[in-house]
Automatic annotation (TrEMBL):
Coiled coil: 224-251
HAMAP family for this protein: tRNA_Ile_lys_synt
GO molecular function: tRNA(Ile)-lysidine synthase activity
Protein name: tRNA(Ile)-lysidine synthase
Main localization category: cytoplasm
Assigned keywords, A-Z: ATP-binding, Coiled coil, Cytoplasm, Ligase, Nucleotide-binding, tRNA processing
Binding site for ATP: S36, G37, G38, L39, D40, S41
Domain writeup: The N-terminal region contains the highly conserved SGGXDS motif, predicted to be a P-loop motif involved in ATP binding.
Cell compartments where the protein resides: Cytoplasm
Lineage: Bacteria, Bacillati, Actinomycetota, Actinomycetes, Micrococcales
């Protein structure tokens, strides 16, 4: 434990989490801290300001003003002042949130576009965001309720590598929201309380305020931690499957005249979990489409329950069994 006399345990926990994340970055690099001014991002920014200089890392706090609420410019300005008080470089970026896909998704897309733009401008190695263990539990529970499959139940990864060289870091994924709240209180910080986070019209708010507390009350404490552990275990499984697919894909795939094909024999020889992932992998890679479980099982039956079925229409392509191969061709 590195809790020094007088150092609040919550502050110490948040700093340790940030320190571990920054240790993976080169010294003298630059990081973006996504700062809304709320509890989690404020605690993250304060901890980054404390830990980053130890590695010669420059922290740039970016507050995105979505302009969706009255007084949003004042909230953004207050967050920037807090960041400057910590010793971070502070930036405020105003964005226009496009319609379509739901307000939450549209705001998230606009926010990440703004963060990406600043990251490119300053040559940042990483963007730090303040998702906590509670956010992870909510994400997994929502995925479970929607039946979205293993990829959704994996939740958010601590590190998301991207092709542009700037990764997304989530240092607080093992930190509870109550800890960030306690850290802000201990440091005398005044977080912004987003009214949207208490609006029951949003599904995630109902999960946060009603569903998870009910599960904790009826099943006992530790539900949020259990959901987060489940996500971590599923990510490990997914990484293992990805390695298996990379090892065997060239042996089972052939390019067809108007698409791509998989060997029936090779698919039949593999366990169902790997067979289904191979089918989904090929469709995503070749046609940019994701299959539902029902669609995946329909294709798999061309391998395991072949009775002369005709072609199967899928998103963006068609699957058919021809001469011992499952051929996927563009529609």
């Amino acid at each position: 434990m590195d809790v020094r006399p007088g150092l609040d345990p919550a502050v110490a926990e948040v700093r340790r989490a940030v320190r571990r994340a920054l240790e993976a970055l080169p010294e003298d690099s630059t990081v973006i801290v996504a700062l809304s001014g709320g509890l989690d991002s404020l605690a993250l920014a304060a901890a980054t300001a404390f830990e980053a200089p130890k590695r010669g890392i420059t922290g740039v706090a970016v507050t995105v003003d979505h302009g969706l609420q009255k007084g949003s410019a004042d909230v953004a300005a207050a967050a920037a002042r807090a960041a400057e008080g910590f010793g971070l470089v502070a930036r405020v970026t105003r964005v226009d949130v496009r319609e379509g896909g739901g307000p939450e998704a549209a705001a998230r897309d606009a926010r990440y576009e703004a963060l990406d733009a600043v990251a490119r401008e300053v040559g940042a190695e990483a963007i730090l965001v303040g998702h906590t263990l509670d956010d992870q539990a909510e994400t997994v529970l929502l995925g479970l309720a929607r039946g979205s499959g293993a990829s959704s139940l994996q939740g958010m990864a601590p590190v998301t590598e991207r092709g542009d060289g700037c990764r997304i870091l989530r240092p607080l994924l093992e930190v509870r929201r109550e800890t960030t709240r306690a850290a802000c209180a201990a440091e005398g910080l005044d977080p912004w309380l987003d009214p949207h986070n208490a609006d029951p019209r949003y599904t995630r708010v109902r999960v946060r305020e009603t569903v998870l507390p009910t599960l904790e009350r009826e099943l006992g404490p530790g539900v949020a931690e259990a959901l987060a552990r489940t996500a971590a275990q599923l990510r490990e499984d997914a990484e293992a499957f990805a390695e298996m697919i990379n090892e065997i894909i060239e042996d089972v795939v052939e390019h067809a005249e108007a698409g791509i094909s998989l060997s029936v024999g090779a698919l039949a020889a593999n366990p169902a979990a790997l067979r289904h992932r191979l089918i989904r992998h090929v469709v995503v890679a070749e046609f940019g489409q994701s299959l539902t479980r029902s669609q995946t099982l329909d294709v798999a039956r061309l391998v395991t329950d072949w009775r002369g079925q005709g072609p199967i229409d899928l998103p963006g392509c068609r699957a058919a069994r021809i001469n011992g191969r499952i051929e996927f061709t563009a529609r």
